[in-house]
Amino acid sequence: MAKKLTSVILAFAVILTAFAIPASADDGTSDVERGFYRVVDGLLDTLVTGISYLIVEPRSFVAKDDYVSENFYEGHSPEEFLDAPAEGAQWSLGYANASILTGKELEEEHYVGGSLSVTKKLADEVRDDQKIRTVAISDGRGISIFAAVDTFGLANNEVRVIREKFQEYADSKNLEITSINISALHQHSCVDTFGLNGDILGALFTSSMRNLLGLELPSGKNKNYMENLYKVSVQSMIDAVENMQAGNLYYGNIDVSEFIRDKRDPQVYDGNLNRLRFVPADANAQETWICNLPMHCVGNGAAGTMLTGDYPYFMEEYINENANANFMLILGAELAITTDYPEDLNRDPEIIAEYDEGYAGIAAFGHLLGEYACNITEEEYVAPILNIRHTELFVPVDNSIFKLAARGGLLTNQVVKNGLAYEAATELGYAEFGTDLAFAIIPGELAPEIAYGGATTAEDSWDGTEWNYSAFADATDRKLIVFGITNDQIGYMMTENDWRSYLTENEEIVSTGPKAGAYVADTYLTLFDEIN
Predict the structure, then answer these.
(1) pLDDT of amino acid 17
(2) Which of 7, 199, 201, 211 is most buried, by the most CB atoms less than 10 A from its CB?
(3) What is the reported pTM?
């Protein structure tokens, strides 16, 4: 029946194609094909929007004018940004690493992040630990916290719950907290803490009554797992703060572009494995490495039910064993970027025998990246300056699929109503480490061309328009690094002129809409201008 309905819709779309042909684009599709896709997209949008409006609106949706911002850290004011270290300034840094597993992942229902599934995609095997890795760092002017969680994603409102709980500790100790940032490593084989991978049928058929009665919606999040995540995250922040010690900070990188595959034109990405290396003044203390690269964690595929830590788990294993260093990874701008294992990747026969070749590949690739991180030899000293500032923004939710997910309880971001339109309340940030490094702190999966330039031109676009925003990297004379999927997961953010079709790409489906990239770019560049 579903196939017949789809065929009718597609046939109808072919007839309408003659009246809706967008501009030419050099991506392998013809004008007729693009017109066909756009018409079908319009039909699907209309159909899905109609279905979504059959679901009673959740009570958590608030009018934009009534939205109250809580547990948001603005960071430094523009006047507090330093160009040189304060007198007597010195870096201090603390590290913590903790498991977020409860031990009941196979007893209770725990959905696995990755891809949407009509059937219940529940965890049936735990192969690796799932962790939060946390750094507390200061240049002497308050403490900033950066944490990375083994998870598919974490909504901004969940981040704010953790902030609130940690701030209670900070207040009890009279600590000045400048910024708290929580990143998702976007593993496609971890427990779903975002909600989008939950019971789709349950969301569609029970959410309306639940919303009407004010009952909890059936998202993919396990309540006990989330409560444990809050508790462990807060404790890891406390431990990191209490472990802080003086030392020096260094930056280096190494080219890993041969292991990166960009599935979507234009071919733009940061091909470096970036590393901030903290060396404690105490020669007997462990170093801490904050690493950054842009590759999706999809070694086990997107539809599996086995829990793994993917390649970051094995990067950590290698770095712990070979450099005796603490490890944390934060992903970069990785919109459609995945791993490209070398053909001669040396898989461990024992792991193959115990598990399988795929898992052995994840382990071998993680060890390879760990080896590359250990081989960074050229470094520069990072002066003890940490400038950081955040701002809030509201991103339009134009994607009808996301609207349906929001009304059905699977999209758990804070949604506000702007008239008849929906927007997602979120935040982004900008940071400077030392005098030469800039960091864009982004709440989702950013198209790298927005950060580094090389966006699709009008000639190559689907709609014949230009992308009129400056690249983030062009706005500064510092080296730019992106901390992606940080403090929120609002999906893919691409240039508006590169929005194609739900039928041809994956990114359009998992995005708030074509304007997301523009809103993020405009807000980031405005924030940068205010500071500079």
Answers:
(1) 33
(2) 199
(3) 0.92
